[in-house]
Design a protein that fits this description.
- The complex is a heterodimer of chains A (347) and B (386).
- Chain A has 347 residues and is mainly alpha-helical.
- Chain A is built from 17 helices and two strands.
- In chain A, strands 1-2 form a two-stranded antiparallel ribbon.
- By secondary structure, chain B is mainly beta.
- Chain B has a domain of 118 residues: Lipocalin.
- Chain B contains three helices and 34 strands.
- In chain B, α1 packs across α3.
- About 7% of the residues of chain B have low confidence.
- Classes of the chains: A mainly alpha (347), B mainly beta (386).
- The interface between A and B is large, with 45 and 51 residues.
């Protein structure tokens, strides 16, 4: 009974969301309004004007970028949290999923059903992460565009700003915003901020990256983290440093907010090794080794039944906080790690 | 299976984020609003792809072409990446045909057989108007986002570091520099040995052209990005505070203010028959008595979009371009529409240029259009990109 209630609520919520989306799509098709119009009116306009207003009262555009980024990061944190928990849940379910894949390798339909059941048991929604992202991206894109427009780096930016600036004279007369902050010219690239951008995005990505037992997958993940870090560091160097300031602030706040959930994640492990030795072997990676040895031998020949998973789900609920912290902060606690791997419902 | 699908989805999302970021980055970079000028039967045109063309004024046939060195187009600020992004998103209002960054703002300055242009990335060039060969170049180490002005063998260049730099037009050496507190995106006006310029620091400045010493400054309530218009002893300039000012050219004292507009003034005003005409971002074109600022038309002329391009007068017709690419011929006296041309099909931000009864319009799709000012009929239209 206790499990049934939230499911009904969730279902109703989904229906309402689906109906809203359908209505929205119909209105857009009927050209009652456009997607960009909605985005500009609801998200970008208010954010841009608030940013300019803040920079007037704080006396510094750089400070306004920092404050605005922190506020937005905190506001969207529930969504970020949901996303992080989904990732973590996925990671913890890996052994069970692997065993199911082995057990039902010949019956794809049954495998799908069993995995769906497993998701249900642990309360994991595979689309939850996707929806969290979908909701967050417009907000981050709006903040990004707000910084660009308010910087008015080029005359075109300033012309574009006129379309979105509200009419009160306090906003109109605030232009142009001060482009200097802590010795930085916010319209020009800065190598220090570029380095910080690369470093913080690398750290944040490492904290968030889902560890895979597959060596090939590990290699791809690391390559992606390094690639993104280098690309963003380069962008931070060639673009106005106002943007880099926003990125660095966002990354640092992200790390602070994320730490209680994921801990240092895979940040603890050396990640440069793959550059020297190519694709890492599982033996060389402590986490990969543990994951492999834990999940496969322990359940070999045993299989996973609905009953077993359900039982573990119930028993692990009380251990939630402690186990999460152990996993996050204590890499040497192999026993704790094993327990977590075996109890995927501990979300 | 699900795990693989999820990992695949994650990769797609990450790559998507990166692509969106790159595309958005493309919207940061400059595009420019190049202009046109003429001498004799030759038109000199800046383009959105970093070139200057000398064209036959009657049919648009090319005489010579000069291209900004590749070393300049690829340096420091966003380059090819932004071109990719801006072309993809069309956020730069032109997209098609821009094979390399242009970044010219305003028309070339022309004097003594030499063309002077300022490239956004900070380099001013002098080009021989007959041959199209470079005479000299000078790097002022700051972005140039305004047109250049030449007077008494001195080239005046506003820049984004807040300076107005005066160069010797003969060899490009620096004569003097004057600093303001904001970017100088307004093309300077030089009349009777005095340089008038607007700055984003809200001020209108009057400087001695000989040595750059300040005569006076006038503070408005907002950014001044428009080119000051000097008629007799009055300077006319619009501001982002939605006001249009008439300022005494000798003292900097306020003569009158027009407060009836609803948005920014950016374009340079035009003068004719004792009336000042100016376009505004509120979609209107205003006509004001030059002496007292009272309305000269029964009502402002309303266009379909904001008016950024500076209007021109020829005969009894005022030609105005709205940002959405519509061109209007307006009766100077009555403010009634004489004709409308909507065949540009691209945004128009560049200043209009009129010569011998023809108006030339640089559009943001890198085309040049020639229209008969009396009738509004198109004479020719040429693609400026390669």
């Amino acid at each position: 009974m206790a499990q049934a209630r939230p499911r009904i609520t969730l279902s109703r919520r989904r229906i309402i969301i689906a109906l809203l989306i359908v209505v929205l799509v119909i209105l857009i098709i009927a050209q009652v309004f456009s997607i960009t119009g909605i985005f500009n009116t609801i998200v970008l306009g208010p954010m841009l004007n608030f940013l300019i207003l803040m920079s007037r009262y704080l006396g510094s555009f750089g400070l306004a970028i920092i404050v605005m980024t922190i506020v937005i990061r905190i506001l969207v944190f529930p969504l970020t949290l949901r996303q992080l928990r989904s990732s973590k849940a996925m990671r913890k379910m890996q052994p069970q999923i692997k065993e199911l894949q082995k057990q039902f390798s010949d019956d794809k339909q049954r495998l799908g059903q069993e995995i769906t059941k497993l998701y249900g048991e642990v309360g994991f929604n595979p689309l939850g992460c996707f929806f969290s992202n979908i909701v967050q991206y417009p907000i981050w894109i709006a903040l990004y565009l707000s910084v660009i427009m308010a910087l008015a780096y080029t005359p075109e930016n300033l012309v574009g700003l006129s379309d979105r600036l509200y009419s009160p004279s306090i906003l109109q007369n605030s232009l142009p915003l001060s482009q200097h902050f802590l010795g930085l010219n916010l319209t020009q690239g800065n190598i220090v901020l570029a380095f910080l951008e690369g470093l913080t995005i690398w750290m944040l990505s490492r904290m968030s990256t889902m560890q895979s037992p597959e060596p090939q997958q590990q290699f791809m993940n690391r390559l992606m983290v390094w690639g993104i870090s280098l690309v963003f560091a380069w962008l931070a160097f060639v673009l106005p440093s106002g943007l880099a300031l926003y990125w660095v602030t966002s990354n640092i706040v992200g790390m602070v907010l994320q730490y209680p959930v994921t801990g240092w994640g895979s940040l603890k492990r050396p990640s440069l090794a793959f550059l020297k030795g190519g694709i890492p072997h599982p033996v060389g990676n402590p986490r990969a080794k543990r994951s492999t040895t834990i999940s496969i031998p322990k359940r070999a020949g045993q299989g996973v039944t609905k009953k077993q998973v359900g039982a573990k789900t119930g028993s692990a609920r009380s251990e939630k906080k402690d186990a999460t912290r152990d996993d996050a902060r204590s890499p040497k606690n192999e026993t704790g790690y094993k327990e977590l791997e075996d109890k995927p419902k501990d979300l | 299976m699900f795990n693989n699908r999820r990992t695949w989805l994650t990769k797609v999302v990450l790559i998507g984020i990166l692509l969106v970021t790159l595309v958005l980055v493309g919207c940061i970079g400059p595009r420019g609003w190049p202009g046109t000028t003429s001498e004799g039967n030759t038109l000199y045109v800046n383009t959105l792809d970093g070139r200057i063309l000398a064209l036959n004024i009657t049919n648009g046939a090319q005489k010579w072409v000069w291209t900004v060195p590749a070393a300049q187009t690829g340096r420091s600020q966003p380059g090819n990446l932004t071109s990719i992004g801006s072309t993809f998103l069309n956020c730069s209002r032109g997209g098609a045909g821009q094979s390399r960054p242009g970044y010219f703002y305003g028309a070339p300055a022309l004097a003594n057989g030499t063309i002077y242009i300022g490239y956004f990335k900070g380099v001013a060039y002098a080009i021989n108007a007959s041959t199209g060969k470079k005479v000299w170049e000078h790097d002022i180490k700051s972005n140039i986002a305004s047109g250049l002005t030449i007077a008494t063998n001195t080239l005046f260049i506003g820049s984004s570091n807040g300076n107005l730099t005066a160069l010797d037009a003969g060899n490009g050496s620096v004569k003097w520099a004057f600093s303001t507190e904001g970017e100088v995106w307004s093309t300077p006006s030089v009349v009777d040995g005095v340089v008038y310029l607007g700055s984003l620091d809200h001020n209108l400045y009057a400087l001695n052209a000989a040595d750059g010493s300040k005569r006076w400054s006038f503070t408005s309530g907002g950014v001044i990005a428009s080119t000051p218009l000097v008629v007799g002893d009055v300077v006319y300039v619009g501001s982002f505070d939605h006001k249009f000012y008439a300022v005494d050219a000798k003292t900097g004292g306020l003569r009158w203010t027009f407060e009836g507009a609803g948005d920014w003034f950016w374009s340079e005003a035009a003068y004719g028959n004792g009336t000042v005409y100016m376009g505004c971002f509120d979609h209107n074109v205003y006509a004001l008595d030059a002496d007292n600022g009272t309305a000269a038309w029964p009502k402002p002329f309303t266009t379909s979009a904001k008016v950024k391009a500076s209007p021109v007068i020829s005969g009894d017709v005022l030609v105005v371009a709205s940002e959405d690419g519509k061109i209007y011929g307006i009766d100077l006296k009555t403010g009634e529409k004489k004709w409308e041309f909507d065949g540009v099909n691209a945004k128009v931000l560049s200043p209009l240029y009129a010569a011998a009864g023809v108006v030339y319009i640089n559009s943001q799709d890198n085309r040049l259009h020639a229209l008969n000012i009396e009738t509004g009929r198109q004479i020719w239209s040429i693609r400026l990109s390669r």
